[in-house]
């Protein structure tokens, strides 16, 4: 961390996703209820994601959580069949309830230029009853890695917050939504919290000096407003924001309101961010349920940017736009089955910054 960043942000910093990684974490699929009726192809979908993360010459380590030794054996065989370089894969036997790593996994931060884990609470998006195993993942990872775990406590209670609810530029600015953080009645993570309360938590635990508040998330997102489904930083000064051109689609008004908010927003240095529009795929449904299909749920790795695709005419358009935003290859990952779990590549993974 540079002296300038340290002076601006204090002793703690949440590195941006495009900064060098030590590894990417992911949980091997093991709960059929996450993809009811579509669980069978999930191991192959995960194997492809892991292969893309680990496989390139500049690829990185992948740390895979498995629920038991039996699952470990099954996963290693599946990865070998998919030609994954197993020398870059670490298996950790850590039982989970569901295992959406972005939300229940460890939030790695730099504290005094050393790696630590910010210990946010997890309660299954204040929606589902089973989360005790998932909630223990950060503490278990801290114990296995030897990294210090720093519980995020404010006003005498642990703060519940998920990784998909924020995106950051690594320079002090964070973007999130009021729908997820501040709704008084639906999926309330931290009852009674205000804008100022969250901003105090972000400053203390993540080194954030500037928060951009957007309004609502896209339709089909059962997290109730995660920002990583529609708005992401691609460099310190630029965000991509999804755009729905069909005025009859409810996402049109949602995303246009967020565009207006972004156009009025400021970065940590007072400058205005650049905003690049990213198309939405056509609405995707399964069994009558609208799914949160979005190209913004991409994962930035050391070797490439992995982008969910949906057999849609806008797949190529989105990949082209994102290719102009990054200094590394942009790779499409088929996600039509994956999104039936109500999340895709970014939701399933969590990056560990290089020390």
At the fold tier of CATH, the topology name is L-arginine/glycine Amidinotransferase, Chain A
How many helices does DSSP assign?
12
Stretches where pLDDT is under 50 for at least 5 consecutive residues are 1-10
CATH superfamily: L-arginine/glycine Amidinotransferase, Chain A
Q: Provide the CATH architecture.
A: 5-stranded Propeller
Radius of gyration: 19 Å
Sketch the major β-sheet.
Answer: 4 strands, mixed
Range of helix content: 25-40%
Number of strands: 21
- Strand content of the residues, in percent? 15-25%
CATH C-level name: Alpha Beta
In what order do the strands lie side by side in the largest sheet?
1-5-6-7
Give the secondary structure arrangement, pairings included.
Layout: H1 3-9, E1 12-13, E2 21-27, H2 42-55, E3 61-66, H3 69-81, E4 89-93, H4 101-104, E5 107-111, E6 114-119, H5 124-127, H6 132-135, H7 137-145, E7 149-151, E8 153-154, E9 157-158, E10 167-168, E11 173-177, H8 178-182, H9 195-206, E12 210-214, E13 231-235, E14 238-243, H10 250-264, E15 274-279, E16 285-286, E17 289-290, E18 299-300, E19 305-309, H11 314-323, E20 330-334, H12 345-348, E21 349-353
Parallel strand pairs: 2-3, 3-4, 6-7, 11-12, 14-15, 19-20
Antiparallel strand pairs: 1-5, 2-21, 5-6, 8-9, 10-11, 13-14, 16-17, 18-19
